[in-house]
């Protein structure tokens, strides 16, 4: 349909839509936001709303769907969750004053990474907009790839950059993005080139290609200099971080392009992050240890809050504390003095019960100061936001008072920079009514006595309403119409309403204004005069209250740095006291974290599993790893006996200790760990053409190539994804490589079903055998879940299969086959028939003789011609008829 065939409304829609081709346009029409054409077709599916059409009788009806304007936020949230952006187009002039078509403009572009709206943000999670820049440089005769990562949480003002260099730079970048979980990820669009290789590993965020010039060094530096009002970036600590600066500049440019009417005045600091500042957790370890999300659920499914380590430890009282605890879990410390400082503070909170209770009680009144201060700085905070801020600031003196006697250095440091912010609390409390409405345009915001102009107008408004009530009484008396009412609405203003039955008694000076089915509405000169006085006073009152509110918000916006500082202090106290609360309630002990190599845990427990046991007591276990005679623990035992739980609990106890938390054990000494690696469970990656075994080998290779002698490695069932001999050989070689100090020498827990590997204890120094204890009585097996010294000689797999409910005939036949295998010297069962029936009337097939020849063949000792001759001989023999 040509533009000339469209209605004026649809021409206006298309003109606006051209400016936002990639967004779903919410086009305000009356009380609805309407979507048309492709937007309507897509939105109707994503939002599960009815798709209809405009101009149904025309040759080309326009697809249409819509949502009520007052419920738009929920629908916008769904579209953002689906990875879409939304352009909100409003009527920017009063329809009553419009000449012809109402003027409309896009007033807000919603993108997942630039949100500041409380309704659209998850309270306990950060909301990062991130960008990646890359560069290839010559290094030692070769090329080295460098990545820069920048991340901005607009809702809190947090802004930081990192760089990744070296052979594993792309892996470290991908791992950091997994920890970060950004909502949007920007990268430079290179025309004619495929998407970068590193990008294929990223799942979750909305990935956006942006113009290359945004990432150019000069443009990026200019963005940062303007943001922080500096002439050189060296003062920000960015010297030499050229690639990270490029990413940071792109983040700022994207924000200003998508939010042209907003500023970032609350972003006052650029933080530099270094890999050496925290333990590097890769995505596999985060998943396998179930730090923030259970392994057994899809990304969009709900799960039990306490089924992750975060869920167990998160006893925080505020959203700010919950977000900080998540960050601590994903970035454990590796500096001994920092770990000790946190442990000291947690320990003091644990020991001082009255102070801990008082502080946590006060923290429950604290709202999300970090995000409220951002909305204040951006000029979108509501009266209720300011009242919530006042409620939060009111507890600061009480919190400080309760902390005065603390000796822990971390708490003392917070107190030295403490700000009660009494002046800010007083400013809000003096100005705003306690029950101020959500919208500042509704009036009734300002307290009596705060401003003389407000008081005068409010009195005039109140008196005017009294005058209206008096006029109504006089008109009833004059006309004798008892049902006469003086009413008001926004369209007609004030009017006198008389029912049809009383129309003969209406005086001659009444001027008809509107006719209804059962009544008539009138105006009189006296009512008109009063209306002008009352309405004028109310309009002026609302306008003045709005002006005073904006002045207050602007004044508070100039103190954003103070609010952000206190938000950080309160979040830290919240996490420290929450960890102390968890330690006190669950019997956690303070670990000793030192620079030695030993990991000694007495009566260790899995922090999550012990909460999910359903009333059954958790069986605690000891663990001993060091860098000498106990470098590698080989753990054997049956399925379901608790091997994987034991591996994970050791990893979690180490991680908890290095975030500064007490641990679920009677006693724990943790020799500092630089990284935790896990290879637990079976999974595949069919999208990338990788089988379960291939994924297992890729993850194992990553561990062997990345770990150091200060790492902790947790391996479960290496080699189980292939044939028995291949798998055993791989598992054996991996264990030897890890054990060998010349190769790796890392502290390792190695769970396996290959009982042959227990021989390594007498062949290699530094390897110890342990098993999960089992009690067997009258054919019944009980898993005791105790870890004891020595190796297991059986896997009890058939018992587990029986518990799982396999048919009895399957279990019986499996027992027969197992007995034949155990009696056979060659590992091949003899030919026997099953007397139970025809279903199993054949024994296990014996391999062809050529298979034995192939196993014994030394390919590397043969010439190509000899190999071809041998292959031809095999082919001839296979074609010969068998007798």
Write a structural description.
With 883 residues, this protein is of the alpha/beta class. It is 40% helix and 18% strand. It contains 27 helices and 26 strands. Helix 22 (724-739) links the parallel strand 23 and strand 24. Helix 9 packs across helix 19 (560-586) and helix 11 packs antiparallel against helix 14. It is elongated and about 120 Å long.
Structural class: alpha/beta
3D shape: elongated
* Poorly predicted tracts of residues: 684-689, 826-845
Compute the CA-based radius of gyration: 36 Å
Number of strand segments:
26
Helix content: 40-55%
Q: How are the strands ordered across the major sheet?
A: 3-4-2-1-5-6
Major sheet summary line: 6 strands, mixed
- Spatial gap, N to C terminus: 80 Å
List the total number of helices: 27
What portion of residues belong to β-strands? Answer: 15-25%
Summarize model confidence as the mean pLDDT: 87
In short:
The chain is of the alpha/beta class and 883 residues long.
Task: Give short descriptive properties of this protein.
alpha/beta, 883 residues, 6-stranded mixed beta sheet, 26 strands
Chain-wise SSE layout:
Layout: H1 8-17, E1 24-29, E2 32-36, H2 37-47, E3 52-54, E4 62-68, H3 72-81, E5 86-91, E6 104-110, E7 129-139, E8 142-153, E9 158-164, H4 169-180, E10 184-188, E11 206-210, H5 217-228, H6 242-258, E12 271-272, H7 283-288, H8 309-313, H9 319-330, H10 336-351, H11 353-363, H12 369-377, H13 383-393, H14 396-403, H15 409-416, H16 422-431, H17 452-479, E13 485-489, E14 493-499, E15 511-515, E16 519-523, H18 525-557, H19 560-586, E17 592-594, E18 599-604, E19 621-625, E20 632-636, H20 643-659, E21 667-671, E22 676-679, H21 692-706, E23 712-716, H22 724-739, E24 747-751, H23 760-763, E25 767-777, E26 780-789, H24 797-804, H25 808-823, H26 849-856, H27 864-879
Parallel strand pairs: 1-5, 7-10, 9-12, 10-11, 17-21, 20-24, 20-25, 22-23, 23-24
Antiparallel strand pairs: 1-2, 2-4, 3-4, 5-6, 7-8, 8-9, 13-14, 14-16, 15-16, 18-19, 18-21, 25-26
Helix pairs in contact: 5-6, 9-19, 10-19, 11-14, 11-19, 12-13, 12-18, 12-19, 13-16, 16-18, 17-18, 24-25
């Amino acid at each position: 349909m040509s533009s000339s065939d469209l209605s004026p409304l649809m021409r206006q829609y298309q003109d606006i839509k051209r400016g936002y081709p990639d967004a779903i346009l919410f086009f305000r029409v009356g009380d609805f936001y309407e979507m048309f054409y492709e937007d309507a077709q897509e939105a109707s599916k994503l939002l599960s709303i009815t798709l209809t059409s405009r101009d149904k009788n025309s040759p080309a009806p326009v697809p249409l769907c819509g949502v009520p304007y007052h419920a738009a936020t929920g629908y916008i949230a769904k579209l953002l969750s689906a990875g879409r952006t939304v352009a909100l187009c409003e009527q920017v002039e009063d329809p009553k004053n419009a000449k012809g078509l109402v003027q409309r403009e896009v007033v807000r572009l919603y993108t997942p990474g630039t949100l500041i709206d409380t309704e659209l943000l998850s309270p306990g999670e950060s909301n990062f907009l991130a960008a990646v820049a890359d560069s290839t440089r010559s290094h030692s005769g070769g090329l080295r790839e460098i990545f820069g990562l920048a991340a901005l949480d607009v809702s809190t003002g947090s802004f930081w950059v990192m760089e990744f260099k070296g052979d594993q730079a792309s892996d470290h970048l991908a791992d950091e993005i997994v920890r970060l979980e950004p909502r949007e990820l920007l990268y430079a669009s290179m025309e004619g080139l495929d998407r970068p290789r590193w990008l294929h590993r990223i799942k979750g965020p909305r990935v956006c290609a942006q113009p290359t010039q945004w990432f150019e060094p000069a443009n990026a530096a200019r963005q940062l200099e303007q943001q922080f009002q500096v002439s050189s970036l060296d003062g920000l600590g960015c010297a030499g971080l050229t690639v990270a600066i490029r990413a940071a500049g792109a983040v700022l440019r994207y924000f200003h392009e998508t939010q042209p009417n907003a500023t970032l005045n609350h972003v006052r600091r650029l933080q530099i992050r270094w890999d050496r500042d925290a333990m590097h957790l890769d995505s596999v370890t985060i998943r396998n240890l179930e730090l923030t999300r259970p392994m057994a659920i899809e990304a969009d499914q709900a799960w039990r809050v306490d089924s992750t380590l975060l869920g167990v430890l998160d006893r925080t009282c505020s959203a700010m504390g919950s977000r900080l605890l998540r960050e601590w879990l994903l970035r454990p410390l590796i500096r001994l003095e920092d770990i000790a400082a946190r442990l000291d503070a947690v320990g003091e909170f644990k020991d001082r019960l009255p102070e801990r209770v008082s502080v946590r009680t006060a923290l429950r009144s604290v709202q999300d100061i970090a995000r409220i201060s951002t909305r204040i700085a951006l000029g979108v905070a509501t009266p209720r936001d300011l009242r919530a801020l006042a409620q939060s600031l009111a507890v600061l003196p009480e919190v400080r008072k309760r902390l005065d006697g603390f000796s822990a250095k971390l708490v003392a440091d917070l107190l030295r920079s403490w700000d009660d912010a009494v002046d800010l609390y007083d400013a809000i409390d003096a100005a705003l009514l306690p029950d101020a409405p959500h919208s500042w345009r509704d009036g009734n915001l300002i307290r009596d006595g705060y401003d003389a102009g407000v008081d005068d107008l409010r009195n005039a408004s109140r008196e005017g309403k009294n005058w209206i009530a008096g006029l109504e009484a006089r008109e009833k008396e004059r006309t004798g119409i008892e049902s006469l009412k003086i009413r008001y609405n926004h369209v007609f203003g004030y009017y006198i309403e008389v029912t049809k039955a009383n129309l003969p008694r209406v005086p001659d000076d009444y001027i008809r204004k509107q006719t209804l089915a059962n009544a008539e509405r009138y105006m009189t000169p006296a009512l008109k005069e009063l209306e002008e006085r009352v309405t004028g006073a109310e309009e002026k009152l609302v306008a003045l209250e709005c002006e005073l509110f904006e002045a207050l918000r602007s004044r508070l916006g100039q103190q954003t740095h103070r609010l952000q500082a206190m938000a950080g202090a309160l979040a830290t106290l919240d996490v420290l006291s929450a960890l102390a609360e968890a330690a006190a309630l669950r019997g956690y002990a303070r670990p000793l974290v030192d620079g030695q190599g030993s990991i000694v845990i007495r009566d260790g427990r899995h922090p999550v599993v012990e909460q999910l046991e359903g009333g059954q007591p958790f069986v605690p276990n000891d663990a001993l790893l060091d860098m000498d005679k106990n470098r590698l623990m080989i753990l054997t035992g049956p399925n379901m006996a608790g091997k994987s739980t034991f591996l994970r609990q050791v990893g979690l106890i180490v991680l908890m200790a290095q975030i500064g938390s007490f641990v679920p054990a009677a006693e724990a000494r943790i020799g500092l760990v630089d990284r935790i690696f896990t290879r637990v469970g079976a999974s595949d990656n069919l999208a990338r053409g990788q089988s379960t075994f291939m994924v297992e080998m890729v993850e194992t290779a990553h561990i062997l190539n990345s770990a150091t002698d200060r790492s902790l490695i947790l391996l479960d069932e290496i080699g189980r994804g292939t044939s028995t001999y291949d798998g055993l050989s791989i598992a054996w070689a991996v264990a030897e490589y890890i054990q060998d100090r010349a190769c790796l020498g890392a502290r390792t827990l190695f769970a396996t079903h290959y009982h042959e590997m227990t021989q390594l204890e007498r062949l290699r120094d530094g390897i110890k055998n342990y098993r999960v204890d089992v009690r067997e009585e009258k054919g019944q097996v009980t898993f005791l879940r105790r870890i004891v010294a020595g190796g297991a000689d059986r896997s009890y797999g058939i018992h587990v299969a029986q518990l799982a409910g396999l048919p009895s005939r399957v279990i019986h036949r499996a027992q027969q086959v197992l007995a034949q295998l155990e009696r056979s010297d060659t590992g091949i069962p003899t030919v026997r028939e099953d007397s139970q029936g025809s279903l199993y009337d054949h024994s296990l097939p014996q391999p062809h003789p050529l298979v034995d020849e192939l196993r014994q063949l030394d390919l590397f000792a043969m010439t190509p011609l000899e190999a071809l001759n041998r292959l031809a001989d095999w082919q001839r023999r296979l074609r010969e008829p068998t007798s």
